[in-house]
Amino acid sequence: MRKKFSPLLVLGIVLFFPKGIFATQQHPAPTGLVVHQIAHLMFVVAMLILLLTIKKTVGVKIEGWKNLYKAAVFFMIWNAIAFFVHGIQEFIPKEAYTGQGYWGTYLSLGEQSFVRIVFYVGKVIAPLLNVIPFYYLHKSLKSFRSIAG
Fold this sequence. Notes:
about 150 residues, mainly alpha, two-stranded antiparallel ribbon
């Protein structure tokens, strides 16, 4: 008998062991950031190739392909914003980070407040935007699964 994946198990692990799970990754300068930015660019290129391939071969008339196309578009948007936010972070001096708390690092507005506000908004929006392509990817795979039987 095959065991099924349980989302409740994952939720239980996250709730009872929160200090062991971190969703952030620091990129030591300069190579970590450069490699990470290259990865964002490669992801955009891969999604662009996927978009062009879908458009050229099957089109976006079939529901599954249309949703996969939308997922690729939103993945490209997310990567562009993430790339921009990583770049703008380099213009914020290290002294602007006032402290480290349990939930993250604190950033004071001070000088260059426009840059810091744009950085903050980008940091908040990017993960939220990442939900949209996964929604369309899920719909796409669900559609393909129903076609396959």
